[in-house]
Amino acid sequence: ARGLEARRNAAAACAAEANRLATQGDWDGAFAKIDEAIELDPDGQRHLAVVKMQRLALTLDREEDAYAWGREIFEGLIRDDAALLTNLGRFLVEAPRLEPRDYDLARAAVHRALELTGDQHPDALATLASIEFADGRLEQAVEMQRRALALAEAQESNLAREFRRLLEEYEAAWNEAKP
């Protein structure tokens, strides 16, 4: 137990150092510290893998590196974390200035999140709807958003109002696009 606590403390220190280095613009150093933090405490620090991808894409405009890292963490580090998979998918579809978008990776990440949750994750369903909508797949977007809304309502989630608004937006676009 003491060894685990020591590793967690060391990982937290690495994460803090990564933040300090990032604020100074030393991204190579920050990424090395992120990697070290994850290695020391993968369960507690794996969220930093998604942060690293976000910084590669948005701060450094290194989209190709960001996508390569995103595929790597999808296949390994975050493969069994539904929340991080959903966050990855959402980032890939919603991040400003991220072009071209990797809808295939976004879809794969969210499908894996849904697989892990038995399709019972309303936020993942809504994220998948957002991906489909952004990719011009309007019918699929409406279908996913309907499922997300039904699940949110069944769970009495605070997300239901926002999900309803998005469903109306997707349905309007789909109806407009119909011949």
Structure description:
By secondary structure, the protein is an all-alpha fold. It is 79% helix and 0% strand. It has 10 helices and no strands. Helix 4 packs antiparallel against helix 5 and helix 8 runs antiparallel to helix 9. The longest helix has 22 residues. 38% of the residues are buried. The mean pLDDT is 95.
Strand-helix topology:
Blueprint: H1 2-23, H2 27-40, H3 42-45, H4 47-59, H5 63-75, H6 82-94, H7 103-117, H8 122-134, H9 138-154, H10 160-177
The total of beta strands comes to: 0
Shape: globular
Low-confidence stretches: none
Q: DSSP helix count?
A: 10
Span of the ends, CA to CA: 64 Å
What percent strand? under 5%
What is the H-and-E element order?
A: HHHHHHHHHH
Q: What's the main sheet like?
A: none
What is the residue-mean pLDDT, rounded to a whole number?
95
Radius of gyration: 18 Å
Helix content: over 70%
Short structural summary:
It is built from 10 helices and no strands. The chain has helices at 2-23, 27-40, 42-45, 47-59, 63-75, 82-94, 103-117, 122-134, 138-154, 160-177.
Features:
single chain; about 180 residues; mainly alpha; 10 helices; about 80% helix
